[in-house]
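Appendix B. One record, verbatim.
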Amino acid sequence: MNKFGKVVGAAMVVGAFLTLSACEKPAGPAERAGKEVDKTVEKAGQQIEKAGESIQDTAKGDKK
């Protein structure tokens, strides 16, 4: 393929990508609620992990 054909092909790929990314629908209420649930679960998991580490430290006698 010649240089011109490669440039045209690359331009078509970039154009298609930009067109598809512009068509993305905004998040609906269920998706936003799901993201909030994910955040909450992540935070709870972090707190549980911290508590587990604290229990291990206490069991070893390494009080913080």
